[in-house]
Amino acid sequence: MAKQISDETYAAKSKIKMTTGDKVLNGFFYLFITLFSIACLIPFILVVSSSLTQEQTLNQYGYSLWPGEFSLDAYRLVTVSSDIPQAYLVTIFITMFGTLLSMLFTCAVAYAMSVKNFKSRSALALFIYFTMLFNGGLVANYLLMTKTLMLQNTIWVLIFPAICNAWNILLMRNFFNGIPDSLAESAKIDGANDIIILFKIILPISLPGIATIGLFYALSYWNEWYKCLLYIDSNHGQYYTLQYLIQRILRQVNYAASQPAEAVGLNSVSLPTYAYRMATIVVSTGPIILLYPFLQKYFVQGLTVGSVKG
C-alpha cells in the first residue's frame, strides 16, 4: 500500500510542468556547477601536465595545461629508488588494516554511546569530547609510544596512535542515534545481545556513515608521514610510508639542485626539480582518488543523516 502511494505521488510530481523561469534557473544552476567542476579539475590537469614536461621547458615557459615538451624524467626519478615499492606496500597495509581497526573501534564505541539504557554513556561522551580540547602534547605522546608501549621502529606505531578519532566517534554516534530504537528492541525480544544487534542489524543499515567515516580514516592513513619522522629512524627504512619516502627524496633533489654541479658530481641544472614535485603529487594521490567514485553516493548522506539527532 505504501509503495503504491509513493508511486502515485511520484507520478503526480512528474506531471508537473516546469515554467520558463524554472527552466532558466535550472539551466543557470547546471552551468554554474559545470564551470565550478571545470575550475576544480584544471589544477589537477595542470599538475599532471607539468609532471610530463621537461624541466627546461618549465623554467622557460612556466606551467601549462598541455606538456610543452614531453618527458618522463620526473617519473624516472620517482621510481629510481628501490624503496618505493616497499613504501607503497607499507602505505597500502596501514591504510587497509588501520581503517578496518579504526572502524571496528569507532563503531563499537559510538554504538555504546547511542544505547539509551547505557548508564555511563554521558560520562563516556564527556571523556571523548574532553580529548578534543586537551591533550598531553608531543613530549607525552612520544614517551608513551617509545618508553611505555615500546612501539618505536615498528609498523604498529603508524596504526595504533590513530586508531580512534574523537570527532569521528561523535559523528558516528549521531548517525546511530538516527536509527529507530524499535529495531534493537525487537531484536532483544528475540534474544539477541548487543554484539549481534551491532553487527547484524545496525551496521548493515549504516553504510552511508561507515563509508564516510571510513574515507576519513583511509585518507588519514594514506597521507601519514609525521609519525615516520618521529618514531622511525633511518635504520628501519622498511617501515617508511610512501608520503615520507617521497618527501625525503624531494629534499635530496632540492639539495642537489641547489649545489654546484661539481659538488654533487652531476649536472644539477638537468634535475627535474619542479616536474618532480608534480610527479610526486600524481604518484601519491592517484591511488586514493580511485576510492571516491565508489564512496561518493554515500558521502553526502553519511554527513547529513546523522545530524538530525544530537
Structure in a nutshell:
By secondary structure, the chain is mainly α. Helix content is 70%, strand content 0%. The protein is flat.
Number of strands: 0
Radius of gyration: 26 Å
Give the overall pLDDT as a whole number.
80
Estimated helix fraction = over 70%
Q: Runs with pLDDT <50, length 5+?
A: 1-6, 305-310
- The proportion of residues in beta strands is under 5%
Number of helical runs?
A: 16
- Largest pleated sheet: none
Overall geometric form: flat
Give the helices and strands as they follow along the chain. HHHHHHHHHHHHHHHH
Terminal residue distance: 33 Å
State the secondary-structure class: mainly alpha
The quaternary structure here is single chain
Describe this structure in words.
- It is a single chain.
- With 310 residues, the chain is mainly alpha-helical.
- The protein has helices at 2-14, 20-51, 55-61, 73-79, 84-114, 121-133, 137-148, 166-177, 181-189, 194-202, 207-222, 226-231, 242-258, 261-264, 273-289, 292-304.
- The protein starts with a helix and ends in a 6-residue tail after the last helix.
